[in-house]
Amino acid sequence: MSAPMRDLDIFPAVVIITASNAYPDIDPITVGINAQYAPAGSTAAPKARVIAANGFIIIGVDGADGPITYFKEEYIQLDKDDSKIYRFITKSNRIIVVQKDRACGCGSRLKNWFPGSSMSISEGS
């Protein structure tokens, strides 16, 4: 199996994930990377690795026994603003906001993690 094409790979990243069906009721541009600008029901994934590949967004975080896939879903739209903040809209109408973290990510096992070796991210998975 060949390696998936990566459209985006950010580590370390700060991530906000809204509840499903947030879009179109919430304008993606209004969702900020800080929790204070996140709609009710949103979750944050601190010190994450975000990979967009083959139409999927995959968010990895450090788990007790190593990196784990925290979130994976097909996305239908990806936009980047002038501040290098990425906004995804997924098939379940979640808004996912991603920005490179200024922290170094030191000590994280996510630095060398790529889920393609342990899971399929092909269409329909």
Layout of strands and helices, then pairs:
Layout: E1 6-17, E2 43-53, E3 56-63, E4 66-80, E5 85-90, E6 95-100
Antiparallel strand pairs: 1-2, 1-6, 2-3, 3-4, 4-5, 5-6
Lateral strand order in the biggest sheet? 1-2-3-4-5-6
- The CATH architecture is Roll
CATH class: Mainly Beta
Beta percentage is over 45%
Fraction in helix: under 10%
CATH topology: PH-domain like
- What pattern of helices and strands is seen along the backbone? EEEEEE
Radius of gyration: 14 Å
Provide the structure class.
mainly beta
* Mean of pLDDT: 83
Report the principal-axis shape.
globular
The total strand number stands at 6
Ends apart, CA distance between termini: 15 Å
How many DSSP H or I helices?
0
Total count of domains: 1
Task: Enumerate the spans where pLDDT stays under 50 for 5 or more consecutive residues.
Answer: 117-125
Summarize the structure.
The protein is mainly beta and 125 residues long. It has no helices and 6 strands. It has strands spanning 6-17, 43-53, 56-63, 66-80, 85-90, 95-100.
What does this structure look like?
- This protein has 125 residues and is mainly β.
- The chain has one domain (6-114): PH-domain like (Roll), CATH 2.30.29.
- Helices cover 0% and strands 46% of the residues.
- The chain is built from no helices and 6 strands.
- The protein has strands spanning 6-17, 43-53, 56-63, 66-80, 85-90, 95-100.
- It has a 6-stranded antiparallel beta barrel.
- Strand 5 (85-90) and strand 6 form a beta hairpin.
- Residues 117-125 have low confidence and may be disordered.
